[in-house]
Design goal:
Elements lengths: L13 H34 L7 H10 L17 H8 L5 H27 L1 H12 L2 H8 L5 H14 L4 H14 L1 H13 L1 H5 L7 H21 L7 H6 L3 H10 L2 H9 L3 H14 L2 H19 L4 H8 L1 H12 L5 H4 L3 H8 L5 E2 L2 E2 L8
Antiparallel strand pairs: 1-2
Helix pairs in contact: 1-5, 2-3, 4-5, 4-7, 5-18, 6-17, 7-8, 8-9, 8-11, 9-11, 9-16, 14-17, 16-17
Length: 368
């Protein structure tokens, strides 16, 4: 009897089974491609691309960095230097060049992160993780504020994620770059990772507290030393809050919408986070819970005490959210299985919110 036919007992030969498996594999691959395209279209349609408010201010700072003339309360714009440094190396200038630079940086960061996820998880599960991140608040924030310095901060964060499985020296070196770019946000981001070591070590990475924190401080000191040497305007984000009762104003505006801001920090990912918190209450020690709770409160307050609440919360939790997406991906065989779960549909349908000055930004693509 030829291979690929049925035997006298009616059982398929190995060739026929292989054909069925190959067909099933191709159907799953086509299904995964269709799901990726559908989710990308859905995210773009419901969020919509938009340019960062006050773009001309960012371009003006980049044109003259590090000697840009800004008011002291806006001197923190001088302290996110990677974008201006690259911008000044380009042969062209202006708002269009500035926007294209930051958009290219975002795409490069996304591509680098996707390749790293493929290496860590394999292609099938990496697609799940990428789709989870596409529906996370960080994506909504970046799509709504194209041109903000976050593009280079995210690129630096991705570089940091890639070395967390390496030795302390390499972690220190990349942490210097991250601290040089955005010390305050990176400090919160690293602290969150260090507080949940089992959460990240399950994925084969080992953040090292001393090299990471030391690197952040060295990066910040190096930046401030350079800015001081060229006579740049001094200032910080704390000065922004201390000027003209700004902290009180922001706190007043945020209190009434605090729960909604909390929702916007993770969006549909709360469907996964709440069960994880419940598990932690049963498994973690009391001391660890107290420390984690303190950091969670400080993390949330850091978002509330800023004009761009959702953006700050999304940026400081970005590395942790990447690892959360990896954990979610590991629960499923591939993308077609993932989208069959109720939690996945909750994530897909959960409305994204981006708060700025206590008010949600308009979102979605509109005709015209």
């Amino acid at each position: 009897m030829n291979r690929g036919t049925l035997s006298s007992t009616g059982i398929a030969t190995s060739s026929a089974v292989d054909d069925i498996d190959d067909k099933d594999t191709w159907l799953r691959r086509l299904g995964s491609v269709a799901i990726v395209v559908a989710i990308a279209g859905w995210v773009l349609w419901r969020t919509g691309p938009a340019v960062v408010p006050h773009l001309q201010v960012f371009v003006g700072v980049a044109d003259m960095w590090p000697r840009s003339t800004v008011e002291p309360i806006f001197a923190y714009l001088l302290r996110v230097p990677l974008g201006p440094l690259v911008y000044q190396l380009l042969p062209y200038s202006g708002q269009r060049t500035y926007l294209v630079l930051h958009l290219v940086c975002l795409v490069a960061a996304g591509a680098l992160l996707a390749l790293w996820l493929v290496r860590r998880l394999g292609l099938r599960r990496a697609l799940i993780a990428c789709c989870v991140l596409a529906m996370a608040p960080i994506t909504a924030v970046q799509l709504n504020w194209i041109g903000i310095y976050d593009a280079f901060s995210i690129l630096a964060f991705v570089a940091l994620l890639m070395v967390l499985s390496r030795g302390p020296l390499l972690q220190f070196a990349v942490a210097v770059l991250v601290g040089f770019q955005n010390f305050e946000q990176s400090l919160f981001a690293v602290a969150i990772l260090l507080l949940v070591p089992a959460f990240v070590r399950d994925l084969g990475v080992k953040p090292r507290a001393v090299p990471l924190l030391a690197g952040l401080v060295v990066g910040k000191v190096a930046l401030e030393t350079y800015l001081g040497s060229v006579g740049a305007q001094s200032g910080s984000r704390l000065m922004f809050l201390a000027t003209d009762g700004k902290a009180r104003e922001l706190l007043t505006d945020s209190v009434s919408v605090g729960p909604i801001i909390a929702w916007s920090a993770l969006g549909g990912l709360w469907l996964y986070a709440i069960p994880a918190v419940r598990t932690a209450f049963h498994e973690w020690s009391r001391g660890r819970l107290v420390v984690a709770g303190f950091v969670a409160v400080v993390w949330f307050c850091s978002g509330v005490m800023s004009e761009d609440e959702t953006r700050v919360l999304a940026m400081t939790s970005f590395p942790a959210v990447v690892f959360a997406a990896m954990h979610i991906a590991n629960r499923h065989r591939d993308l077609t299985e993932f989208v069959r779960s109720p939690l996945a549909w909750g994530l897909i349908l959960a409305p994204p919110l981006v708060f700025w000055q206590g008010v949600p930004l308009p979102m979605g693509i509109t005709i015209g």
